[in-house]
Amino acid sequence: MKEKIVLAFSGGLDTSFCVKYFTEEKGMEVYTVFVNTGGFEKQEEDKIRKKAIALGVSHHETINVAKRYYQECIRYLIFGNMLRNKTYPMSVSSERTFQAIAVAEYARDQGINKIAHGSTGAGNDQVRFEMIFHILVPGIEVIAPVRELGISRQKEIDYLKKYNVKDTFGQYEYSINKGLWGTSVGGKETLTSDQGLPETAYPGQMEISDPIDIEIKFNKGEPVGGIETIRKLNKLGSAYAIGRGIHVGETIIGIKGRVGFEAAGPIMILQAHHALEKHVLTKWQIYWKDQLSEWYGMMLHEGHLLDPVMRNIELFLKDTQETVTGKVSLKLRPYSCSVEGVTSPYDLMNASGAKYGEKHNGWTGEDVKGFTRISSNPLKIYYSLNKFRS
Predict the structure, then answer these.
(1) Could you tell me the end-to-end alpha-carbon distance of the chain, in angstroms, rounded to an integer?
(2) How does pLDDT run across 243-284, given as a tens digit for each residue?
(3) pTM exceeding 0.90
(4) Domain spanning 4-171: which superfamily?
């Protein structure tokens, strides 16, 4: 009887290579699992299924985790206004955990004790996948052929051609990871420090140039409409080429990494949500939320979503969102969006009755004199004994 193995399958070059490697070189029955985190339509799922079957898998499974991904991750990224290194909306780094969980649960339910992924040995995904596998299915054998063979992309293509795999290999010039919370783009330019990606490398192309005004509504921190709103904003913003960028940061394995991304919906939502929070949260709510959000994002990036401390932080983040309700108007232009205004029943700016720089209300000039005397007293004492260094 042939050995069985579960393969996390995307339909891309690396996982296509893995299928043929396991079937032809190892004589194994391959069970492919495609996990849709919300970025693929039904026809795209069907196309990936047909590709897996054509490659010779024994069984192919499609698992849609969009709702789980949104409920258990994306909304907390929104609550925290999380941008890795203040740039990247953590598209791939967040979805990989949920893909790994789904694949691990499938392998466990099927009673298969071998599991594989197509990650290389130079990136973050190998760590994210394998940490989840070891936690949820302890003792399972994990195999990563691309990493273990040290094979190049060109050699993978040559190998597939040897087995008459029909494909448009030119598309593999860029590695595209498509998801609900954004799409990553990797290519020869992202392996350098000084080159940007060409326009053609991005999945979406600019189609609209005339500026338009839109509104994003929030209820307790969440965009009204949830997943569907994210999809609509991704489509609209992509037509303006909004949400593009190149992220540079620390990888889990300790080297610098560089990747392009296109995330119109996330960038627009995070920009709007951040603006709304500035109107409705207190100074210290914003301060401590920023600190914990930075920590949460780092833990998520490094594959630690299952750590119990993450649930503790999520409780705090959710609690801060009780008054984050209202609407934010944005103006969309080619390559950019800007916040025009905020409307909320919890707007602290309107509630104060004062007008910054013009009119005070609730205090007098004499109150300010006393306030500044008391506030400056500790440093007044300090500088009475220590010379001020300009």
Answers:
(1) 81
(2) 999 999 888 888 898 999 999 999 999 999 999 999 999 999
(3) yes
(4) HUPs (3.40.50.620)
